[in-house]
Amino acid sequence: VQLQASGGGLVQPGGSLRLSCQASGISVSSSYMYWYRRAPGKELELTAFIRPVGGTNYPDSVRGRFTISRDNSKNTVYLQMNSLKPEDTGVYYCKANQDWGQGTQVTVSS
Q: How confident is the model at residue 53 (pLDDT cuts 50, 70, 90)?
Protein backbone atom coordinates (compact mmCIF):
# COMPACT_ATOMS: atom_id res chain seq x y z
CA VAL A 1 0.00 0.00 0.00
CA GLN A 2 1.27 3.44 -0.93
CA LEU A 3 -0.35 6.74 -0.05
CA GLN A 4 1.05 9.87 -1.69
CA ALA A 5 -0.11 13.07 -0.02
CA SER A 6 0.31 16.42 -1.73
CA GLY A 7 -1.14 19.91 -1.87
CA GLY A 8 0.32 21.47 1.23
CA GLY A 9 1.89 24.88 1.28
CA LEU A 10 1.86 28.35 2.75
CA VAL A 11 -1.46 30.18 2.85
CA GLN A 12 -2.73 33.30 4.56
CA PRO A 13 -5.39 33.14 7.28
CA GLY A 14 -8.80 32.85 5.70
CA GLY A 15 -7.41 31.13 2.64
CA SER A 16 -7.99 27.66 1.24
CA LEU A 17 -5.99 24.60 0.30
CA ARG A 18 -6.91 21.22 -1.09
CA LEU A 19 -4.85 18.22 -0.06
CA SER A 20 -4.77 15.08 -2.17
CA CYS A 21 -3.96 11.51 -1.21
CA GLN A 22 -3.27 9.28 -4.19
CA ALA A 23 -3.57 5.63 -3.20
CA SER A 24 -2.11 2.50 -4.73
CA GLY A 25 -2.43 -1.07 -3.55
CA ILE A 26 -5.87 -0.42 -2.08
CA SER A 27 -9.16 0.91 -3.28
CA VAL A 28 -10.26 4.14 -1.61
CA SER A 29 -13.87 3.24 -2.36
CA SER A 30 -13.73 0.23 -0.03
CA SER A 31 -11.42 1.60 2.63
CA TYR A 32 -11.74 3.78 5.68
CA MET A 33 -9.80 6.87 4.69
CA TYR A 34 -8.49 9.37 7.20
CA TRP A 35 -6.68 12.67 7.40
CA TYR A 36 -4.68 13.37 10.54
CA ARG A 37 -2.53 16.32 11.45
CA ARG A 38 0.26 17.06 13.88
CA ALA A 39 0.62 20.67 14.92
CA PRO A 40 3.97 21.86 16.28
CA GLY A 41 4.38 20.62 19.84
CA LYS A 42 1.03 18.83 19.85
CA GLU A 43 -0.21 15.28 19.53
CA LEU A 44 -1.55 13.71 16.38
CA GLU A 45 -5.15 14.75 15.79
CA LEU A 46 -7.79 13.06 13.64
CA THR A 47 -8.99 15.74 11.23
CA ALA A 48 -11.48 13.91 9.03
CA PHE A 49 -12.51 10.45 7.91
CA ILE A 50 -14.80 8.91 5.35
CA ARG A 51 -16.37 5.47 5.51
CA PRO A 52 -16.43 2.99 2.62
CA VAL A 53 -20.20 3.26 2.38
CA GLY A 54 -20.11 7.02 2.68
CA GLY A 55 -20.56 9.19 5.69
CA THR A 56 -17.95 11.51 7.07
CA ASN A 57 -16.86 12.73 10.45
CA TYR A 58 -14.95 15.76 11.70
CA PRO A 59 -13.80 17.10 15.05
CA ASP A 60 -15.33 20.35 16.25
CA SER A 61 -12.10 22.20 15.45
CA VAL A 62 -12.60 21.82 11.67
CA ARG A 63 -16.30 21.02 11.22
CA GLY A 64 -17.86 23.39 8.73
CA ARG A 65 -14.50 24.40 7.30
CA PHE A 66 -12.97 21.12 6.10
CA THR A 67 -14.49 18.59 3.74
CA ILE A 68 -13.19 15.11 2.99
CA SER A 69 -14.16 13.52 -0.31
CA ARG A 70 -12.95 10.86 -2.71
CA ASP A 71 -12.75 10.30 -6.44
CA ASN A 72 -12.96 6.57 -7.00
CA SER A 73 -11.95 6.88 -10.65
CA LYS A 74 -8.66 8.45 -9.58
CA ASN A 75 -8.35 6.35 -6.41
CA THR A 76 -7.74 9.60 -4.57
CA VAL A 77 -9.04 11.17 -1.38
CA TYR A 78 -9.13 14.92 -0.88
CA LEU A 79 -9.28 17.29 2.04
CA GLN A 80 -10.70 20.68 1.11
CA MET A 81 -9.71 23.20 3.77
CA ASN A 82 -11.41 26.58 3.82
CA SER A 83 -11.26 29.53 6.19
CA LEU A 84 -7.86 28.40 7.36
CA LYS A 85 -6.55 29.58 10.70
CA PRO A 86 -2.99 29.74 12.07
CA GLU A 87 -3.87 26.87 14.40
CA ASP A 88 -4.46 24.66 11.35
CA THR A 89 -0.71 24.72 10.75
CA GLY A 90 0.90 21.31 10.87
CA VAL A 91 1.89 18.23 8.97
CA TYR A 92 -1.11 16.47 7.45
CA TYR A 93 -1.09 12.71 6.97
CA CYS A 94 -3.29 10.42 4.95
CA LYS A 95 -4.25 7.00 6.33
CA ALA A 96 -6.06 4.11 4.69
CA ASN A 97 -7.37 1.52 7.15
CA GLN A 98 -4.10 0.85 9.07
CA ASP A 99 -1.61 2.15 6.50
CA TRP A 100 -0.03 5.59 6.67
CA GLY A 101 1.31 7.86 3.98
CA GLN A 102 3.95 10.53 4.28
CA GLY A 103 2.95 13.96 5.44
CA THR A 104 2.45 17.23 3.67
CA GLN A 105 3.18 20.51 5.43
CA VAL A 106 0.45 23.14 5.78
CA THR A 107 1.43 26.55 7.11
CA VAL A 108 -1.17 29.23 7.76
CA SER A 109 0.50 32.54 8.35
CA SER A 110 0.37 36.15 7.26
A: confident
